[in-house]
Amino acid sequence: MEVSTFFCRKGLHWAAHTxxxxxxTIEYSQCIVCHPEIVEDLYHRFRVKDKRSRAGLYTFAxxxxxxxxxxxxxxxxxxxxxxxxxxxxxPAASAKRRRSSAVTIASLKKHFKGSEAFGAKDPRQLAxxxxxxxxxxxxxxxxxxxxxxxxRRLIWRQEPRVTIPSRREFxxxxxxxxxxxxxxxxxxxxxxxxxxxxLAFDLWMSRKCEDVFSIxxxxxxxxxxxxxxxxxxxxxxxxxxxxxAVVFKKLLDAKQLTEKTIAYVKDDGGNLTTxxxxxxxxxxxxxxxxxxxx
Length: 294
Hints:
alpha+beta, four-stranded antiparallel sheet, four-stranded mixed sheet, 20% strand, Nucleotidyltransferase, domain 5
């Protein structure tokens, strides 16, 4: 009978597993304290009828290890197995644990955050928040940047007292607050001072398969400087031209641009053409001597 024997170490479990190649790979375990010698005819000694009468011999179940043998070792040979395990060399560190060069947010905080952090209302923290919003918005960077370990390493190496927001906090709080303040101070005042404005709009589908409507305003200020403002992205439930005109008209009314719009730019999309025709009946340019936007 072909027999192969190997040893398995797991906690208090140190046993010889003997596999019968010609018996559909049935595996057995034997306690090396009760049976210090490996028995070649283990299968003949390990019959079903005397299974429970022979201590230290168990069927090895690959699914759950050898639970019966582990129980036997803990109850009958605990001191022996503990001494054996203590005398053995420690196993080599797993390759998965060798990440000395990996940079994690926790390790960065431990390394850099030795000083007390700025308060939430500290002018230096508020200035950093605004600059971070500008970096993402104007620099067209991904919001995931704020949680990038290397980005945090760069910031904290310069100023460890800065608190870098999480992606969720940045998306749901800091960015909307910054957009609201910026619109009130810059965009709204500029649009009120404009005598006329040209609008560019487009429609596309987002990665979530949602229809998104973009509106951008162009005008010249009193110093003849060219001004461009993104009036917003609007998620629309319908991409039909007449339905888009309703959404567009509400935005024009809210920004007080209904009577200032003298021109628009669009692509050749049929729904945008329909929307433009619908707007011609609602946008008034009489003060500018125009019957409709061109």
